[in-house]
Design goal:
The complex is a heterodimer. By secondary structure, chain A is α/β, with parallel strands linked by helices. Chain A has a single domain (2-206), classed as Rossmann fold. Chain A is built from seven helices and 13 strands. In chain A, the strands form two sheets. Chain A has a nine-stranded mixed beta sheet with strand order 9-8-7-10-6-1-4-5-11, sandwiched between helices. In chain A, strands 2-3 form a two-stranded antiparallel sheet. Chain B has helices at residues 28-42, 53-66, 170-179, 188-193, 224-230, 259-274, and strands at 14-19, 46-50, 69-80, 83-90, 95-102, 105-109, 123-128, 137-143, 156-160, 183-186, 214-218, 235-240, 253-256. Chain B folds into two domains: 14-128, Rossmann fold (3-Layer(aba) Sandwich), CATH 3.40.50.620; 156-274, Rossmann fold, CATH 3.40.50. Chain B is an alpha/beta fold. The chains are: A alpha/beta, B alpha/beta. Chains A and B meet through helix 3, helix 4, strand 7, strand 8 and strand 9 of A and helix 2, strand 3, strand 4, strand 5 and strand 8 of B.
Amino acid sequence: MRIAVCVKHAVDEAELKAGSDGAPVLAGAACKMSTFDKNAVEEALRLKSAHSGEVVAVTAGPADARRTLKEALAMGADRGVIVGTDAPSADTSRTAGLLAAAVRKAGPFDLVICSEGSSDTYSGQVPPMLAEALGVPYVGYARKLQVDGSVARAERLLEDSVEEVEAPVPLVVSVVSEINEPRYPTLIQIMQASKKQVEEYSQDQLGVPTRPASVRVTHMAMQTSNRKRVTVEGSPEEAASRLVQALEREGVL
Amino acid sequence: MEIGRLREGVRARSKLLLKGPGGDDVLPGEAAEAVFRAASSLRPSVILLGATRNGRETASRLAAKLGWRCASEVSKVTAKAGELAAERSVYAGKVVASVACALPAVATVKTGSYQRSDAEGGTVEEADVGAVDGAVRLLSRKKKEAGGPDLKKARVIVSAGRGVKRKEDLPLLEGLARDMGGALGCSRPLSSDLGWLPEECHIGLTGVTVKPEVYVAVGISGQLQHIAGMKDSKIVVAINTDRSAPIFQASDYGIVGDLYQVVPALRKALAARKGPAPAA
């Protein structure tokens, strides 16, 4: 089975700092593989070990995104594909278009796996848009996935229900973090990852025209918290009774 | 087939019920195709959907089919001068972004960001969109077990994190939740990794978003992904052994201490407040 897994080199939200104007400093901000993409890579590797075949990690992003590809390779992906772009993260339809073109060029694939959304902007738009761009079926929010010949079966985890669905391959699937526990690469795997092949496609090569961003971010500000941050001191008993008094004063008990 | 059900309490000048052959179980791919067909003749400027899992998928596919822009998880939405403008939270709730895009546009609206209207009225029309086939087949749909806590409606939530050492210790927190007239929730590791509580209890970016009167985080370090699910709570209380845990920055009242001592003390203090049970 040939599997493409899409990964994103995302801003590490935990490291994001405010500038003097109160806006987050995105230029040069620390980046990492989007948290839930590790589940997508893990699921691709799990299916490969059950069916044999190949796992190709695909990303669209700046040169630095090679680090995220390398992480996918260290986990066990066979090769990587990067589409060099400085398109903003908010331009989801563009990202989906670039990934679709890259998946077509590097393919064909039986299965394209994504995570349900990225840990930085969490729009969840790219996986369904990718399926539309490729013209293949889409199954979103899978917490279980199996492929049996030419049919994929999945359990979709929704807010209030769980659906069992099936769809023909090839298809795009997005997975939720409940689907598996991502592996940690060993030191040897990390070293070997550097030797694996990474191919770079330019936007021109893929024939995806540049156009203005679809959704623009016009302003950003750090979320301010108005929490009181009172430390309730004392022994457990003293602190407990002070806390109860405080909650009574707040009128919430 | 009916695409969505027209709910009580949806106030609109007119409502359109999309119909086609087939059963009532509509998947998002089919909903996107049906709305796409209706939108192609109605030509609206904005299509809004709720930012649920199915809503996100439907909106994204609809935008792709129509070639429109798609804004996600928005609140404070305005549409004027040919442009949709809105706010949304990004970077796990750490940043508020203003976003804008040209109309026509599709947008998913953050759940709970608007008061539900209870006004009635408006006309209902029906439109036949014909058969839609999304290539995905639904084999079964199971409602999640009722009887679990409805965290969205709970006035008080006591939430358990990795500071809880064993599954057998959860009744201690359940007891506290009961004493406070609330429900038990948890951070992601307890539901997703350890499986101690069902997934519906997971509060956070990829789980449930809640805003109770009181949120008591017990043994939760306060990862951004967790804060994203509870930051709109009225009062936040944190109990944690680690004084430097980020949860204290997101709390109104913090107790630095061992939950195994603090929670029983808190239960006693709550019982004392109520006083002895009146004689029958």
